[in-house]
Amino acid sequence: MKAAVITFPGSNCDRDLATAFEKAGATVSRVWHKDTELPEGVDVVGVPGGFSFGDYLRCGAIAARSPIAGAMIRHAERGGYVLGICNGFQVLTETGLLPGALMRNAGLKFICRPVDLRVATADSAFTSGWAPEDVVRFPIAHHDGNYTADPETLARLRGEDRVAFTYVENPNGSMQDIAGLLSANRRVLGLMPHPERAIEAEQGGADGMGLFRALLGGMALA
Amino acid sequence: MKARVHVMLKDGVLDPQGEAVRHALGTLGFSGVEGVRQGKVIELDLAATDRAAAETEVRQMCEKLLANTVIEKYTVEIG
């Protein structure tokens, strides 16, 4: 399986994400925001955490209009897998690949600590290694993770079983405790918590590897 | 030609930053502030000379980048 990890100016979790993909057995190429195409044969695109373009205008807004974002959108539209973490989740909502928006945390503070998450659905390549209601622990590190969407969108996400993870204790004010979301075809996942920062016991836990192993094992060919 | 874009959160979208500003104003003794909403002003210098065309173009800029219409609304002033 081939993964491509995007680097924007201000990305700071791109190496961690590449390491997690490699640890799960993927061949990883690194792509730059000015690239206009993904490498040939890429199965999954990783959109990393960080502060792309300094969070100017809105978190993820400029990155979502960068040349590589166009290639990522075309990849998603032809059924390719995309994993957006933290700032990557913000980028995915700004492109419209995932609905809603991520606003300033309700408590206004930057929050950086491990949190417990409930697996809300096992029906995706990302979450198939767990059972619904399983609890996993990933770190969060964000200022703008307060998930917001209109009531119709929230109802549709629930109806289509597209909430991937919820917070056990809501840290940021997210509606319906939403921590991660799937696209309609279940091949695009965006989440605020960082599975790539929980891949070795030395990091305080390795729950995040469950996501990368399941993804590498369960991806249908794009 | 100059254009000025005001971007505000839509009515009904909670504004935690505005709330924090309201609390701070209360602390300073401004007791009569019943609500604060915080937004952005973006000023553009345009080469265009036709007002209507400029407004149409700036509205497209708002839809494509300057505002996130999922949570924000905008107004455009030309000149």
From TrEMBL, chain A:
Record's keyword annotation contains Ligase: yes
Keywords: ATP-binding, Cytoplasm, Glutamine amidotransferase, Hydrolase, Ligase, Nucleotide-binding, Purine biosynthesis
Signal sequence interval, chain numbering: none
Pfam family, one: GATase_5
UniProt keyword annotation of Acyltransferase present: no
GO biological process: 'de novo' IMP biosynthetic process
Pathway involvement of the protein, from the record: Purine metabolism; IMP biosynthesis via de novo pathway; 5-amino-1-(5-phospho-D-ribosyl)imidazole from N(2)-formyl-N(1)-(5-phospho-D-ribosyl)glycinamide: step 1/2
Gene Ontology MF, one: ATP binding
Active site annotation, chain numbering: C86 (nucleophile), H194, E196
Catalytic activity: L-glutamine + H2O = L-glutamate + NH4(+); N(2)-formyl-N(1)-(5-phospho-beta-D-ribosyl)glycinamide + L-glutamine + ATP + H2O = 2-formamido-N(1)-(5-O-phospho-beta-D-ribosyl)acetamidine + L-glutamate + ADP + phosphate + H(+)
This protein's GO CC annotations: cytoplasm
Xref: Gene3D superfamilies: 3.40.50.880
Main localization (coarse): cytoplasm
Location(s) in or outside the cell: Cytoplasm
EC number: 6.3.5.3, 3.5.1.2
Function summary: Part of the phosphoribosylformylglycinamidine synthase complex involved in the purines biosynthetic pathway. Catalyzes the ATP-dependent conversion of formylglycinamide ribonucleotide (FGAR) and glutamine to yield formylglycinamidine ribonucleotide (FGAM) and glutamate. The FGAM synthase complex is composed of three subunits. PurQ produces an ammonia molecule by converting glutamine to glutamate. PurL transfers the ammonia molecule to FGAR to form FGAM in an ATP-dependent manner.
HAMAP family the UniProt entry points to: PurQ
Record note on quaternary structure: Part of the FGAM synthase complex composed of 1 PurL, 1 PurQ and 2 PurS subunits.
Cross-referenced PANTHER family: PHOSPHORIBOSYLFORMYLGLYCINAMIDINE SYNTHASE SUBUNIT PURQ
Protein name: Phosphoribosylformylglycinamidine synthase subunit PurQ
Gene name in the database record: purQ
UniProtKB/TrEMBL annotation, chain B:
Pfam family, one: PurS
Top-level taxon in the UniProt lineage: Bacteria
GO molecular function: ATP binding; phosphoribosylformylglycinamidine synthase activity
Alphabetized UniProt keyword annotations: ATP-binding, Cytoplasm, Ligase, Nucleotide-binding, Purine biosynthesis
EC number per UniProt: 6.3.5.3
One GO cellular component, as annotated: cytoplasm
Subcellular location: Cytoplasm
Location (main, coarse): cytoplasm
Pathway: Purine metabolism; IMP biosynthesis via de novo pathway; 5-amino-1-(5-phospho-D-ribosyl)imidazole from N(2)-formyl-N(1)-(5-phospho-D-ribosyl)glycinamide: step 1/2
Gene Ontology terms: biological process: 'de novo' IMP biosynthetic process
Reactions mediated catalytically: N(2)-formyl-N(1)-(5-phospho-beta-D-ribosyl)glycinamide + L-glutamine + ATP + H2O = 2-formamido-N(1)-(5-O-phospho-beta-D-ribosyl)acetamidine + L-glutamate + ADP + phosphate + H(+)
Similarity field: Belongs to the PurS family.
Complex formation: Part of the FGAM synthase complex composed of 1 PurL, 1 PurQ and 2 PurS subunits.
NCBIfam families associated with the record: phosphoribosylformylglycinamidine synthase subunit PurS, PRK05974.1
Job description of the protein: Part of the phosphoribosylformylglycinamidine synthase complex involved in the purines biosynthetic pathway. Catalyzes the ATP-dependent conversion of formylglycinamide ribonucleotide (FGAR) and glutamine to yield formylglycinamidine ribonucleotide (FGAM) and glutamate. The FGAM synthase complex is composed of three subunits. PurQ produces an ammonia molecule by converting glutamine to glutamate. PurL transfers the ammonia molecule to FGAR to form FGAM in an ATP-dependent manner.
Protein name: Phosphoribosylformylglycinamidine synthase subunit PurS
Naturally occurring in which organism (per UniProt): Cereibacter azotoformans
Gene: purS
